[in-house]
Amino acid sequence: xxxxxxxxGEKVIAGVRRHWFAFFLQVIALAVAALVPLPLxxxxxxxHLLAAPKVWxxxxxxxxxxxxxxxILFFVxxxxxxxxxxxxxxxxxxxxxxxxLFHREASECFIERxxxxxxxxxxxxxxxxxxxxxxxxxxxxxxxxxLRQVSRPGDVKELIMxxxxxxxxxxxxxxx
Length: 176
Prior knowledge:
This protein has 176 residues and is α+β, with helices and mostly antiparallel strands. It has 5 helices and 7 strands, in the order βαααββββαββα. It starts with 11 loop residues before the first strand and ends with a helix.
């Protein structure tokens, strides 16, 4: 699964991605940026600048150049959205974060080292659409393990807590 090597006997329980709304906001920003050349064409037409073929050609060239750049940025945003993933196994949580096209970071935290899990949903849209952040504090680490803009963060927290409880029970030699 996206470059994650499982230990012997380890099972993937879930793969969690960012909520689609995070990508949607980037697409809206790119769409608004794509509309920027249109008012320039109207202003140039009102000032009768488009009568000169070189001006029209120059405006058209820069508009197409902008649209190509935005198209590339769209695919970079899609790649970052699609390749960002959290893989929850029965032993650990693996955070795979695509920083840019050629830069990927992976970190992990072991289930049995979890000390605290906090879910935060910021704003009315997060509450309506059901996405939020999950921060996991583990033993021995100074920084939090942060899952940003996760779909159904409450369900993901419950899954992790259940796995934590199973890990503790297994360590004590009890089964449920």
